[in-house]
Design brief:
heterodimer; A: seven-stranded mixed sheet; B: 113 residues; mainly beta; 0% helix; globular
């Protein structure tokens, strides 16, 4: 069964609105989650590492005020795209780090964000 | 830091034919290696992983991969593909003491009847 639940799967909204995407770890408590962005026919670009109970660590070039990450519990991390614009349209995917250090990341099904 | 090169961006193949997807990596430390598959508009699903031990790793859906340390490669193979194997395939690597994954650019496999 699914290890990670990502919601919503698709969202279409007007420019200027904020959009929240949820990522839930279903099988275990996750202190670390990751948020990726994927452009069409491209690989995954790591945006940030979400740490439970502390601030997220953003990759170089990713605006932390634009992409707000909250990891308030051991099973939930949220990504909020603030004041979204058409250039923010993309496929966003979260992942959960496995419980043991040598375990793979488990990925959500992604969120297709379209800003009109 | 690690980097991954997937040598083939697109691989067309006929149904029931074998397929090999090539992956080379670069790292100054020991690594874990992974292959993921992505179907359209979906997240990534783990096909197989190499952590240690036997260099031939078997995964789901009949896929296998071989870790070659001297050539820093981790090529993915399947002896006979199905139409349902049409998807994007990503090779990924991370240092054994790191959490972040580095992904290759992906290989699009298109299986034709």
């Amino acid at each position: 069964g699914a290890v990670v639940s990502q919601h919503p799967s698709r969202v279409i909204c007007k420019s200027g609105t904020s959009v929240k995407i949820e990522c839930r770890s279903l099988d275990f408590q996750a202190t670390t989650m990751f948020w990726y962005r994927q452009f069409p026919k491209k690989s995954l670009m790591l945006m940030a590492t979400s740490n439970e109970g502390s601030k997220a660590t953003y990759e170089q070039g990713v605006e932390k005020d634009k992409f707000l990450i909250n990891h308030a519990s051991l099973t939930l991390s949220t990504l909020t795209v603030t004041s979204a614009h058409p250039e923010d349209s993309s496929f966003y995917i979260c992942s959960v780090l496995g419980q043991n250090s040598n375990q793979p990341q488990h990925f959500g099904d992604g969120t297709r964000l379209s800003i009109l | 830091a690690q980097s991954v090169t997937q040598l083939d961006s697109q691989v067309p193949v006929f149904e029931e034919a074998p397929v090999e997807l090539r992956c080379n990596y670069s790292s100054s430390v020991s690594v874990y290696l992974f292959w993921y598959v992505q179907y359209p508009n979906q997240g990534l699903q783990l096909l197989l992983k190499y952590l240690s031990g036997s260099t031939l790793v078997k995964g789901i859906n009949g896929f296998e991969a071989e870790f070659n340390k001297s050539q820093t490669s981790f090529h993915l193979r399947k002896p006979s593909v199905h139409i349902s194997d049409t998807a994007e395939y990503f090779c990924a690597v991370r240092g054994i003491n790191d959490y972040k994954l580095s992904f290759g650019a992906g290989t699009t496999v298109t299986v034709r009847a």
